[in-house]
Specification:
- The complex is a heterodimer.
- By secondary structure, chain A is an alpha+beta fold.
- Chain A has helices at about 15-30, 80, 115-135, 145-155, 180-190, 200-214; strands at about 1-5, 55-60, 65-70, 95-105, 140-145, 155-160, 165, 170-180, 200.
- Chain A has one domain (about 1-215): Gcn5-related N-acetyltransferase (GNAT) (Aminopeptidase), CATH 3.40.630.
- In chain A, strands 1, 2, 3, 4, 5, 6, 7, 8 and 9 form a 9-stranded mixed sheet that branches.
- The two termini of chain A are about 25 Å apart.
- Chain B folds into 2 domains: about 5-175, Beta-Lactamase; about 180-240, Orthogonal Bundle (Arc Repressor Mutant, subunit A), CATH 1.10.10.10.
- Chain B has a 5-stranded antiparallel sheet with strand order 2-1-5-4-3.
- In chain B, a hairpin with a 5-residue loop joins strand 4 and strand 5 (about 135-140).
- In chain B, helix 8 packs across helix 10 (about 210-225).
- Chain B starts with a helix and ends in a 5-residue tail after the last helix.
- The chains are: A alpha+beta, B alpha+beta.
Chain lengths: ~210, ~240
């Protein structure tokens, strides 16, 4: 299951977010070596973790097994505010395009060095489901070029926004991926399960109830 | 024209191709200015695979006459330093940068020298990773001066990845359309035939007469464009309908 939590509700899930910020620090600072976001308290929180961020949290056996954060392109985001030089096309800024950042699977839930694994695939199903339910059909991701190949295999339509570039120890390429109901079917086929994975929490659940009722 | 626009346009062209052959043709046009005139693309076979299965991992090849046959016949894929390096590498690299392994160095040098005799003197390999973690690559080679400037490595990498993605999409569409044409019974009989069962044995398993089994197999063979039962099994394998 993927819980979808709005940034404005983070205060209601204190202990959960203790676990999330620690996971982010472990994966991005300690494993990937992103020193500029290292924090002495081991909680990786940045300027984009505001009320408008949307957090996706995957669970296995009641524990956090994976995470990703969605940022609206109509608001400050990594590509526009941190890496604008990576982008050769105009940076999308409409509210129906979101940026996917901090995609992470907890080390104990990974399957092999290179496989996306069941948690990794569920996170992907999660953002597609969230997007289709929220009027979003494009996300921007700064990922390693090989992810383009995987994205195509899962039924996404990717489009490069720039050329691959070295950032720290990684090579990344900013890419816009478009998806539809068909993408979701393909991902579910790959996962071997067809039930919805996302569960909207707090404010987002309330907004959704209002929208569905009207 | 900027390097990005050139790359973007090449990716557009690749995405518009409607057969894997055209995809690889477009891809070769991208790398030819750097002296790369040949390619081989596919996933990594396991050393436990039978030779026929090894061939199934090969998605496309534009190699000098006779080289691919020699390569497959000698099972060079398991010793080839370029292929071995892909296991530890996710960025594109030059063939000359692929390290030799002490224990099999003589055989590895032989592969490079034979490749060179066939007209492949140097090349560039682009690794890919499938969703399930399976490794693959597209490896470009050339017989003359191979000159790939550093900036072009990233561009070739990106275009090659889009091309491989497109080729795989097109392959799976073909598989789907062939599979869709076969009935469940035809698929069942084919699967058992490929396990080496006789018509009578297949009939017993499925609770139908051996005459009906024969009809199903014949109809499957027609749909697959095969001439007989063995050919139908081979075609079904090739199309990825049975594994």
């Amino acid at each position: 299951m993927i819980k979808v939590i709005a940034g404005c509700d983070v205060g209601h899930f204190d202990s959960l977010f203790d676990e999330i910020f620690a996971l982010r620090h472990k994966v991005f600072v300690e494993e990937l070596g992103w020193e500029e976001i290292r924090r002495p308290d081991g909680r990786e929180i940045d300027q984009f973790d505001d009320d408008y961020a949307v957090h996706h949290v995957a669970f296995r056996d009641g524990r956090v097994s994976g995470y990703q954060r969605m940022l609206s392109m109509a608001r400050p985001n990594l590509l526009r505010n941190v890496y604008p030089e990576l982008c050769e096309l105009e940076i999308p800024s409409s509210p129906d395009v979101w940026e996917l950042t901090r995609y992470a699977v907890a080390p104990e839930y990974r399957e092999g060095k290179r496989s996306v694994g069941s948690v990794g695939t569920e996170l992907i199903a999660g953002f597609v489901e969230w997007g289709l339910a929220s009027g979003v059909n494009k996300v921007i991701i700064e990922f390693e070029p090989m992810w383009v190949f995987r994205a195509m295999g899962l039924g996404f339509l990717p489009r490069p926004l720039g050329l691959p570039a070295e950032v720290g120890q990684q090579t990344i390429v900013p890419t816009e991926v478009t998806f539809s109901e068909r993408t979701l079917l393909k991902i579910r086929e790959t996962m071997g399960r067809h039930d919805p994975v996302v569960c909207f929490m707090g404010t987002l659940a309330e907004q959704r109830r209002v929208r569905l009722a009207s | 024209m900027s390097a990005f626009i050139k790359t973007f346009d090449a990716i557009e062209r690749v995405n518009q191709c409607d057969t894997p052959e055209r995809v690889f043709h477009e891809l070769l046009k991208v790398v030819e200015p750097y002296g790369l005139t040949n390619l081989m693309a596919g996933t990594m076979p396991s050393p436990h695979d039978k030779r026929a299965e090894t061939k199934r991992h090969l998605w496309a090849e534009r190699q000098p006459e006779g080289w691919m046959q020699r390569y497959l016949q000698q099972s060079y894929v398991f010793t080839d330093p370029v292929i071995r390096r892909i296991h530890g590498e996710l960025s594109p690299f030059r063939w000359s940068e692929a390290p030799l392994s002490a224990a099999i160095e003589t055989r590895q040098k032989l592969i490079f020298s034979e490749a060179s005799e066939f007209g492949l003197k140097d090349g560039l390999a682009v690794p890919i990773v499938l969703v399930d973690g399976t490794l693959g690559s597209v490896s470009f080679g050339g017989g003359g001066l191979v000159d790939v400037p550093t900036h072009a490595m990233g561009e070739i990498n990106l275009i090659a990845i889009y091309a491989m993605g497109r080729a795989v999409q097109l392959r799976s569409e073909t598989e789907h359309s062939v599979r869709a044409k076969l009935t469940t019974r035809e698929l069942d009989t084919l699967r058992w035939a490929c396990e080496g069962l006789t018509m009578i044995e297949i009939g017993e398993r499925l609770g139908i007469s051996n005459r009906t089994v024969e009809l199903h197999l014949k109809s499957a063979a027609t749909k697959l464009g095969a001439r007989n039962r063995a050919h139908a099994v081979a075609e079904a394998f090739r199309a990825g309908i049975i594994h």
